[in-house]
Model the fold of this input.
Amino acid sequence: MKTDQEYMHLALLQGEEAKRSGEWPFGAVIVCGGEIVAQNRCTEGASKNVLAHAELQAVNDACKALGRNKLDDCVIYCTNEPCLMCASAIFQAKIPKVVIGACRIDMSHLLRERKLKIEDLADDAGYPIEIVKGVLKGEVVHLFRDIHKN
Done:
């Protein structure tokens, strides 16, 4: 079985692909029993779909791949702290572990701080959730080095 760093590296590759495509460099990977069941990236601009976030697409892909809507034996690796929409989907799918590369505070020059954080939603999810932050944070922040607000 791979380490959190190895799986996060795969999420970073998804983020790099998104960036090459002109998107925000967000990537996500979902692992179940040591096997990758889904990986995706932000395609919001190309698809003209506000729901095309890396995490939402990865959750959707994992549900399809596993043939179920509960991912309670999976782990999701997100290059960045999931937005509230994505965090809600993650918790609706009952994913018990969320591994995050960089948080919004790590890129405060680019991303505004939110009043509600992923921990707020996790506390309200109704089941225990482990949140691990800072995995390959430097690499994630580096990926955003030449991104500008628009």
